[in-house]
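Lecture 7 notes: from sequence to structure.
We start with the chain below.
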Amino acid sequence: MTSGITRLKRSVEVTNSGRRTLHMGSGEPLVLLHMGANPWSKWQPVLRHLADKFEIIAPTLAGWEGGNPLAGPITLDDLTRGVAEEMDRAGFQSAHIIGCSLGGLAALGVAREGRARSALAICPAGGSNQEQTQRLVKHFDMLNNLSLPQRLLVPVVLSSARMRRVALRAVLEDGGRISARQAIQIRRNSAKGDWANLLPGFSAFRLESTPEAPVPFMLAWGEKDRFTPMVHEQPLWLEAVPHAESHVLSGVGHLPMFDDPEQTGLLMRGWLDRQVAAAGITSGGQSD
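Predicted structure tokens for the same chain:
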């Protein structure tokens, strides 16, 4: 380990190369994988549901500040390799994996590599048709090419709950539910990605139906998700993971941990408790 870890307290590990990973809690190993443009800190609203029973790492994904640098357009292999390296550093041979959006795609990669005990993909990206993919690329391109006057106005605009609802409509059902500080941080985090390699990678990506991900898998969809809507994403995801359970989070958008942290946290905890219990029964009363 590159720095000390206090397992019962929240700790952000920073390696000599600048890699950043949250490490906290104790118990069953759990990896949380963030959505694109929003690092591990976006899991904070739901951590209280998890840290009493799980040892959690939440790494920064490849392509974002604090994650692996990219040599070219991002691929699923890039995402998976970075997560596997962080699991190795934490001493996790395998773990339960939960990812949101791009993190849901990374969860699939980790499961396919045989490193997952179970996988939950929340509002997962990667299954949309090309029209939808290009819309997402244009959205990120617009966010990261604001003029200087526009960037300076962002904190002013987001100080209003009404304007937060408008500005964050793509990812939140009701941006007025979060604070101005949270909204500004979401916007700033989007500027910390290697967009020269991220956008071409997103444009070229195709969700493949092979290889299999032979672990318990759940796909959780935001009922009001406008960014990666279930109607576009679910068909190809069910081809990629045909045995996956599906669940709809009611009244939430693309970042359900902000729209409704209680509902989202309870879904995550319920899924994990079920997997731990099933593993205990399968192994004669002892989990891995």
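Points to note: Confidence is low (pLDDT under 50) at residues 1-8, 283-288. The two ends are 23 Å apart (CA to CA).
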